[in-house]
């Protein structure tokens, strides 16, 4: 049987009568769903000829005839689907021996030979689909595991903080602003031969020195210049963001040197070397580039 989903609930029985003579041929019948409501059966014989006018009964398993009928001129019979399990019976009467008889000749029926044709089921197809999905998942997982890169995070000293993991949102914002403004500070230092004051930077609108709503929400830092080598920003709300210290190196391409201290009521440090700052509770902020951030590629 060709219909799969539509005839899964049908047990199909093909009944055929065979003539005792060599002139008889095996009857054949094939049924398929032509739409959601109808099934069409096509009958014929093993020699390739059609079977117009041959009786084709659709019967239930209780042997009740549900759809009595005959094959039409095109050797087909169309009937509506039924919820009952059904059989179909194709009966062919033998042709008379000798001479040409009319096509409507009706002789006695031979004993039928039956052949059970099991309906196609979706069980195997469902199993194959599930197995295919499992294989796809396993292959995808293997590819991800094979090409995945382990995160290689450098070891931090006890007096260092990771810019991505150890800072609050407000502290990350101030840290990013200081890194951006550092380039402007270096340009102004070349022009003026001295570090620009925090007020000059604020007047130019450079964050985080400019006093605006953003600076207040991020701790309200008060900035001052320490000698000619650093800027100190005292936080008025250390629970939001700690105090910052940015040292300015002599080299124009030196890495940003920014420190953080979350202590309350913090005064400006008098000594700015690493050991003195660490002893006073300052921690250097380090930006690490690993598998978790966008990598920089050289072309």
Primary descriptors:
3-stranded antiparallel beta sheet, 299 residues, alpha+beta, disordered N terminus, disordered C terminus, 6-stranded mixed beta sheet, 22% helix
Describe this structure as you would to a colleague:
This protein has 299 residues and is an alpha+beta fold. Helices cover 22% and strands 25% of the residues. The protein is built from five helices and 14 strands. A hairpin with a 4-residue loop joins strand 2 (27-33) and strand 3. The chain is rod-shaped, with a radius of gyration of 45 Å.
End-to-end separation: 64 Å
Return residue spans where pLDDT drops below 50 for at least 5 consecutive residues. Answer: 1-23, 92-120, 293-299
Strand-pairing-aware structural class: alpha+beta
Radius of gyration: 45 Å
Number of strands: 14
Write out the strand line-up for the largest beta sheet, numbering strands in chain order: 9-14-13-12-11-10
Q: Assess the beta-strand content as a share of residues.
A: 15-25%
The overall average pLDDT, rounded, is: 77
- Based on CA inertia axes, which overall geometry fits? rod-shaped
Q: State the major sheet.
A: 6 strands, mixed
Q: What percent of the residues sit in helical stretches (DSSP H or I)?
A: 10-25%
* Tally of alpha and pi helices: 5
Series of H and E elements: EEEEEEEEHEHHHEEEEHE
